[in-house]
Amino acid sequence: QIQLVEFGGGSVQAGDSLRLSCEASGRTSDIYSMGWFRQGPVKAHEFLADCNERGVCTVVDSVKGRFTISRDNAKNTINLQMNNLKPEDSADYYCAAALRTVIPRRYDQWGQGTQVTVSS
After folding, report:
1. pLDDT tens digit string along 55-80?
2. Distance between CA atoms of 74 and 70, rounded to whole angstroms?
């Protein structure tokens, strides 16, 4: 029902910034929330941030202050601005969506991921 595509990954040096974007298509009216996760060598999966349909956004404490999430309802897009990147931020970053019609609500719609590599 939903297709998610991530953009913006790449290889950068420590201290640099990257902006990730996720575009949703298909039945986007079914989306309750969209968020960002990452999978790296240290943590198999880690929730980072999300925004729900009412515009309430959350960023986990571990990256708060460096990462900022934003949304554009008209374009069905969420963004993750990542500043002051560290080598431990190296991971595959995934966009995910939760549907308001699925109970219990969970992130079960996933993009293909975009790789971020941060060198020291």
Report:
1. 999 999 999 999 999 998 788 999 99
2. 13
Q: How far apart are the first and last CA of the chain?
A: 40
> Hey, what's the torsion of the CAs at 103, 106, 112, 113, to 10 degrees?
160
Rg (CA), the chain: 14
Q: Is 15 left (phi over 0), alpha (psi -120 to 50) or beta?
A: left
In the chain, which residues have pLDDT < 70? none
Q: How far apart are CA 27 and CA 31, in angstroms?
A: 8
**CB neighbours of 109 closer than 8 A, spacing ≥ 6?**
1, 2, 4, 96, 97, 98, 99
